[in-house]
Design a protein that fits this description.
The structure is a single chain. With 421 residues, this protein is of the alpha+beta class. It has a domain of 142 residues: 3-Layer(aba) Sandwich (Peroxisomal Thiolase, Chain A, domain 1). Helices cover 34% and strands 18% of the residues. It has 15 helices and 13 strands. A nine-stranded mixed sheet has the order 5-4-6-9-1-10-13-12-11, with helices on both faces. A two-stranded antiparallel sheet has the order 2-3. Strand 7 and strand 8 form a beta hairpin. The two termini are 16 Å apart.
């Protein structure tokens, strides 16, 4: 696709609320609206544009009606600059945790069609106003409600099904899998504490407690203060991503225009957008792998004209640690059943041939569901243009991949990003 990112911005991710445990009141310290405006204005400025130069806006937000009683969020983007953006078209996308990758894709298609010259795509979510049961319910609405959410199935439970199937398929013992998953957590924490925008960034709990080795995580008690309790076997607390607030945005234009009118350009060279059947019960017998993600990877690589060996780094969807292993295998970085062993061997560390989640991933950077895809693209853009946020990819990276997944492997969005300027 001859469309490029020419500007990007990522807000700080975190839990921006203050709770009074005695009264139960919650004070919003950085609102959904503030996050949206910060990200959008930041991306426009990063591109060297003014709001009046933006022809259309796509806004990704997964479940604002449940998280904060707000629907019809597309028009809120005009508040980035009410004068410069007045009367510009806005559209909202939703695709569970892949929501803002869909915003980027639809914005890119609009540019590619020739309808618009410069387009803003952003993702935003404010999750922390709800308590944990409230967040769990909101996210469960992204499952197949009649047989999953309504029956009490949570997303940890759904991904636990994938983990169990993977474990059985490859004859991995409980202890082996626990060790593999601890290595995933440790790598993401170690990367995340060097990312100043991460929810679990510098000075956070993993940094203070030095949870940067698998041994440190494996040594945590099963219960009590500072524990790592089982959430949904085989997944424990430190296998789960964070309840996070945040936003991210990118500006897109044609690659032709990018080369002549902008300082930096990272082309969206290949896109794979693939949908799997939503119900886990309809995927029995193939839950041990992300078949739809594999298909999306193949589509993106074919369009971009690259192979896995061309990738300098990847940002993948580690909503749960098991999914990072499944993503590594779907990309082709590991053979089936081998990603955990490769992880333990350090293959995906920052010094590896294709590091995974230099940002800290969803596990450490945070997972504001509607903003996750845009964040992956924004931070990859920064890496590829020589302005990394957090750990820098080694050398002078040119090609990256983002793997963003909505639901239990359902909405699969894979991008190949290539620096062209």
């Amino acid at each position: 696709m001859k469309v490029s990112i020419v500007g990007a911005y990522n807000t700080k991710f975190g839990s921006f609320v203050k709770r009074d445990r005695e009264t139960g009141t919650v004070e919003d310290q950085k609102s959904f609206y503030e996050l949206l405006i910060e990200a959008g204005a930041g991306a426009i400025a990063d591109a060297g544009l003014e709001a009046k130069d933006i022809d259309a806006i796509w806004v990704g937000a997964c479940s604002p009606s449940l998280f904060l009683n707000q629907e019809h969020v597309g028009p809120l983007a005009l508040e980035i600059d009410p004068e410069g953006l007045l009367f510009k078209p806005t559209t909202r996308t939703e695709g569970a945790c892949a929501t803002s990758s869909l915003a980027i894709y639809n914005a890119a298609y609009a540019v590619a069609s020739g309808r618009f010259k410069n387009v803003l795509a952003l993702g935003v979510e404010k999750m922390s106003l709800l308590d944990t049961p409230g967040v769990t319910h909101a996210l469960a609405c992204c499952s197949y409600w009649p047989t999953e959410g309504a029956g009490g199935m949570t997303f940890p439970g759904l991904f636990a099904e994938l983990g169990t199937a993977y474990q059985e398929k490859h004859n991995i013992s409980d202890d082996q899998l626990r060790t593999m998953l601890a290595h995933v957590s440790a790598l993401n924490y170690k990367n995340g504490i060097q990312n100043p925008l991460a929810h679990f960034g510098p000075g956070s709990l993993p940094d203070r407690n030095q949870l940067v080795t698998a041994e440190a995580i494996l040594n945590l008690p099963d219960s009590g203060k500072g524990s790592n309790p089982m959430i949904a076997p085989p997944l424990r607390l430190h296998d789960c991503s964070l309840i996070t607030d945040g936003a991210a945005a990118v500006v897109l234009t044609s690659s032709e225009n990018a080369k002549v009118g902008f300082k930096h350009a990272v082309e969206l060279s290949g896109v794979g957008h693939v949908t799997e059947r939503m119900m886990l019960k309809e995927r029995q017998g193939r839950l041990h792998e992300l078949q739809a993600t594999q298909h999306a990877v193949n589509l993106a690589c074919t369009e971009a004209g690259v192979v896995v060996g061309d990738l300098d780094f990847a940002e993948v969807h580690d909503c749960f640690t098991i999914n990072e292993l499944l993503c590594a295998e779907a990309i082709g970085l590991s053979l089936p059943g081998q990603a955990g062993y490769d992880m333990m061997a350090g293959k995906f560390n920052p010094e590896g041939d294709c590091p995974i989640n230099l940002s800290g991933g969803l596990k450490a950077k945070g997972h504001p569901v509607g903003a996750t895809g845009a964040s992956m693209h924004a931070l990859a853009y920064k890496q590829l243009t020589g302005a990394p946020i957090g750990i820098a990819a080694k050398g002078s990276p040119e090609v990256a991949m983002t793997v963003n997944i909505g639901g239990s492997g359902v909405t699969n969005c894979v991008s190949v990003l290539r620096r062209i300027q």
